[in-house]
Amino acid sequence: MIRNLESLLAKITTTPALDNEFYQEWMSRPFSIEELQVFARNYGAFVKSFPDALAVLIGATKDLEAKTEYVKTLYSEMGYGNPAKVHSALLFSFLGELARKMGHESKLDPEILVETTELLPTTSELLEGEKALYGDEEMSFGAQLALEWQAYTMLRKLYDGARNYMQLWSEPDQFHEACEYFYAHIGAAEKDHKDESLKAVERYAVDEHSTGKIIEGYDRHLDLISNFWQGLHSRIADLSVKSTAAA
Ligand SMILES: [Fe+2]
Asked: Would 247 be classed as within a structural domain?
């Protein structure tokens, strides 16, 4: 049973959740502050809501060992108990510094973004859909497997794009210091989360029915993630049409 899942996981980087137009754009050029606001508002909301979705998952999981694996993931998401190191805090600390370097101080602050920048419908669908999947005991294992197995490539691509702004920092060391959000993910944490999610799934993928439900949760979550990036890409494409028209 687990072999079916392993062959799915081997193909994850070729799915539209990870191979899409948003990432191509993000990695190819620096964004304007307006484009960064769209990214920060929506991706920020996704990152900020993730621990809450994990809490739903932990509540819905009865198997003690699987529950323990998810608790470890949640603890790491929450900065191992240090509020300054909570992953959403690390993300907004990078974005805040980036805005300052661009001469747009505070424009990427989460409190400002809530007032200035729209949360896209595809983002709300991801946040709500993720919580619903995590609350469904049969599909939640696959949903979490999808999230964690796409996360390494997601963060690697986001980091590759973040390097487009490196020249804004006069000291390269300071750019790398500002990148703690990315390094926390392309280092050990994501590798551990992959193992934890697979260990949790192994305990549940015992027959055809349970494996089918895992795959359903996996596919549904990847679809939500793919639509999320597609929504961001369309919004950013609209912005560049408007700015060309204005020019
Ligand atoms: Fe994280």
From this structure: no
